[in-house]
């Protein structure tokens, strides 16, 4: 019913809003190999990141018209693909090394939270929202999205029978990027694999979920997900599972999610982040969450780009 | 820099509704309906229990890049997403609608896909869109390769059909056909209310509706109105077919077999305007005056009740239940 006298709350759509900073700045992404490099590796990372953080802040200040921008910083630790160390051992070390470079980490997230956070299957929800970019000629007859676990930025090379393929390459047709400018940069992204009845989400797919969370565009039945928990008194726990999926480390009042994101990463992440862009470009995010971010950013005089993928930026630095 | 909110003024909205008996022996309860229509794990199914039980799925999108049907053969390529949703009324009648809206002009070249995804349910033309030719083309149906809304709506019904809730028991209490209703809505002249320009009962269970609606009308509200039309048209069509030629003579099993499903499953479903947007609800009155949907339904219902009373008076009511005899296998994909 549309009347104001009689209401049924189960019959009305609703999407709660979340706090939004101007920029979510990711200071790093820690995998086991980085950890195995010892404290020097972390020290070197933060030392390299620092000048870029200053540059990003300067850029954000300019975008905010000279006013002090609301920037929250975050750091992601992989506990999904490999489990290493423990929060009690690693987190203090991480905070020390960031502090040494003059950096403050506001929020700490676990990579597994991008798969399931507080019992909510975020990755599965995002997978259910994939709407593939249609190659020209698509009129509605398309196989269901994402059945294969692969997502491309164009049309794949048509499958050939092995014998034909061996005979000659005359019948071969190239893949084609849908948004190609004359020449294609075709990419096919593996979103997950299923082995022994267990689904493992790929690193690019979880990184795309991570970006959507940082952009404040994820909801579950209209409610915010991956909400930050305050740091508990005392030492950090011994087990990663005992650490909240998203932890607010300091008393920063700046929200975790933001209109835009920027990530400062080593250049080896470039292919992963290209894949992230391909995923982000094909996710139909909650339209009311999208509308909230658009309206509020416009009210602040810094409207977000229409396309979600364009709200994401990077600084890639080279490792010597 | 463009905002993600749709700033383009749509000059046309089009849709196609497929209406079908839920392939299940018994109607689904509210919670089951919500499970069936949970097309996205993170988005709620809207469930309403007043004035009748009704559940509505979230919209899902299908990306398209193809030509629109046009009546004059004009080539209009559009890119964007078609929205599709499903609803279940009284756990018994399932409907799937695929619909879109389109502005008069669009960018000359295809944009990055993210541009279209922040405009859900919008198809942007490459260049100009001749809305009159498109309106006629959509209602008449396209040629192969042109946008086919019915295909998208059917795809959604097929997806529901594969749901575990419907997988086991596909026996239906009676035979019925799937009907299609195509609609187009063009803007009403400024300051004027909505109007129905034409409601056509075509062959092959196809109905077409041509509407004028105020410019700020949400396409989902138009879709809701047309789903309401389609539901009631399906009820009439189904009951008329169900009793066609079976009421005379009134004696015996045949008459009761024919009447019983109507009483058990359909007669209580008649409730026009239950959830139609207030600004569009007056269009029902127009349809009633022109075609007398409710008059026909009342006459049919009364006739069924009279016949049952007569059967009872004659004393020919059998004692054994008729469920098993009356059941028929449901078949997806065939019209009959």
Describe the structure concisely for a colleague:
The complex is a heterodimer of chains A (320) and B (336). Chain A is an alpha/beta fold and 320 residues long.
Which descriptors apply to this entry?
A: alpha/beta; Rossmann fold; seven-stranded mixed β-sheet; 15 strands; globular; B: 336 residues; alpha+beta; two-stranded antiparallel ribbon; 10 helices; 14 strands; disordered N terminus
Give your account of this protein's structure:
The complex is a heterodimer of chains A (320) and B (336). Chain A has 320 residues and is an alpha/beta fold. Chain A has a single domain, classed as Rossmann fold (3-Layer(aba) Sandwich). Chain A contains eight helices and 15 strands. The longest helix of chain A has 26 residues, at 38-63. The mean pLDDT of chain A is 90. With 336 residues, chain B is α+β, with helices and mostly antiparallel strands. Chain B has two domains: 10-218, no CATH class; 236-329, no CATH class. In chain B, the strands form three sheets. In chain B, strands 1, 2, 3, 4, 5, 6, 8, 11, 12 and 13 form a ten-stranded mixed beta sheet that branches. In chain B, helix 6 (219-243) packs antiparallel against helix 7 (252-266) and helix 7 (252-266) packs across helix 9 (293-314). Chain B is globular, with a radius of gyration of 21 Å. Chain B: InterPro entries: SCO2521-like (IPR049749). Chain A: InterPro entries: SCO2522-like. Chain A: Residues 131-151 are annotated as: Disordered.
Topology:
The complex is a heterodimer of chains A (320) and B (336).
Chain A: E1 21-30, H1 32-36, H2 38-63, E2 71-77, H3 87-100, E3 107-110, H4 122-127, E4 150-152, E5 154-155, H5 162-167, E6 176-177, E7 188-190, E8 192-195, E9 198-201, H6 203-214, E10 219-220, E11 223-224, E12 229-230, E13 246-248, E14 258-266, H7 270-280, H8 287-299, E15 312-317
Parallel strand pairs in A: 1-2, 1-14, 2-3, 12-13, 14-15
Antiparallel strand pairs in A: 3-13, 4-7, 5-6, 8-9, 10-11
Chain B: E1 10-21, H1 30-36, E2 46-48, E3 54-56, E4 60-67, E5 77-89, E6 93-103, E7 105-106, H2 113-117, E8 123-125, E9 127-128, H3 131-140, H4 149-161, H5 164-167, E10 171-172, E11 179-187, E12 195-201, E13 206-213, H6 219-243, H7 252-266, H8 282-291, H9 293-314, H10 323-326, E14 328-329
Parallel strand pairs in B: 11-13
Antiparallel strand pairs in B: 1-6, 1-11, 2-3, 3-5, 4-5, 5-6, 5-8, 7-9, 10-14, 12-13
Helix pairs in contact in B: 6-7, 6-9, 7-9
């Amino acid at each position: 019913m549309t009347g104001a006298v009689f209401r049924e709350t189960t019959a009305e759509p609703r999407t709660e809003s979340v706090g939004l900073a101007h920029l979510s700045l990711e200071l790093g992404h820690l995998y086991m190999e980085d950890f195995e490099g010892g404290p020097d590796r972390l020290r070197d990372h933060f030392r390299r990141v620092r000048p870029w953080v200053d540059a990003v802040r300067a850029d954000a200040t300019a975008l905010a018209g000279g006013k002090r921008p609301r920037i929250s910083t975050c750091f992601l630790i992989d506990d999904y693909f490999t489990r290493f160390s423990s929060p009690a051992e690693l987190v203090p070390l991480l905070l020390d090394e960031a502090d040494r470079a003059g950096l403050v980490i506001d929020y700490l997230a676990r990579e597994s939270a991008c798969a399931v956070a507080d019992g909510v299957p975020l990755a599965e929800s995002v997978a259910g929202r994939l709407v593939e970019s249609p190659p020209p000629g698509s009129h509605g007859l398309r196989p269901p999205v994402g059945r294969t676990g692969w997502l491309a930025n164009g049309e794949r090379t048509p499958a050939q029978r092995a014998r034909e393929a061996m005979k000659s390459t005359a019948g071969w047709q190239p893949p084609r990027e849908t948004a190609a400018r004359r020449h294609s940069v075709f990419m096919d992204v593996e979103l997950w694999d299923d082995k022994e009845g267990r689904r493992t989400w790929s690193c690019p797919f979880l990184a795309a979920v991570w970006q959507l969370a940082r952009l404040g565009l994820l909801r579950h039945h209209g409610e915010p997900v991956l909400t930050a928990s305050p740091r508990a008194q005392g030492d950090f726990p011994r087990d990663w599972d005992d650490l909240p999926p998203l932890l607010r480390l300091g008393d920063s009042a700046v929200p975790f999610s933001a209109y835009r994101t920027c990530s400062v990463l080593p250049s080896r992440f470039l292919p992963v982040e290209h894949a992230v862009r391909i995923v982000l470009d094909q996710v139909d995010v909650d339209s009311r969450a999208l509308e909230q971010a658009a309206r509020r950013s416009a009210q602040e005089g810094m409207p977000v780009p229409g396309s979600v993928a364009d709200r994401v930026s990077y600084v890639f630095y080279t490792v010597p | 820099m463009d905002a993600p909110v749709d700033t383009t003024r749509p000059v046309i909205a089009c849709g196609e509704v497929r209406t079908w008996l839920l392939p299940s022996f018994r109607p689904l309860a509210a919670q089951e309906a919500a499970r069936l229509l949970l097309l996205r794990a993170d988005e709620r199914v809207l469930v309403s229990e007043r004035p009748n039980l009704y559940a509505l799925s979230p919209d899902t999108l299908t990306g398209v890049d193809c030509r629109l049907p046009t009546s004059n053969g004009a080539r209009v390529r559009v890119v964007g997403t078609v929205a599709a949703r499903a609803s279940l009324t009284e756990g018994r009648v399932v409907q799937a609608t695929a619909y879109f809206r389109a502005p008069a002009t669009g960018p000359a070249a295809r944009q990055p896909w993210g541009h279209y995804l922040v405009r859900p349910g919008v198809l942007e033309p490459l260049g100009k869109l001749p809305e009159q030719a498109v309106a006629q083309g959509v209602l008449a149906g396209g040629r192969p390769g042109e946008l086919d809304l019915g295909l998208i709506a059917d795809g959604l019904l097929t997806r529901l059909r594969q749901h575990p809730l419907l997988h086991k028991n596909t026996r239906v209490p009676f035979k019925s056909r799937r009907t299609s209703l195509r609609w187009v809505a063009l803007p009403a002249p400024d300051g004027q209310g909505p109007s129905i320009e034409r409601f056509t009962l075509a062959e092959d269970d196809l109905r077409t509706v041509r509407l004028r609606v105020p410019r700020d009308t949400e396409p989902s509200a138009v879709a809701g109105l047309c789903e309401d039309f389609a539901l009631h048209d399906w009820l009439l069509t189904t009951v008329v077919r169900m009793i066609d030629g079976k009421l005379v003579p009134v004696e015996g099993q045949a008459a009761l077999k024919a009447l019983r499903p109507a009483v058990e499953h359909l007669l209580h479903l008649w409730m026009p305007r239950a959830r139609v947007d207030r600004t569009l609800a007056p269009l029902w009155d127009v349809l009633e005056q022109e075609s007398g949907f409710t008059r026909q339904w009342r006459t049919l219902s009364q006739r069924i009740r009279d016949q049952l009373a007569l059967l009872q008076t004659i004393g020919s009511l059998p004692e054994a239940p008729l469920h098993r005899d009356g059941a028929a296998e449901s078949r997806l994909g065939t019209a009959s």
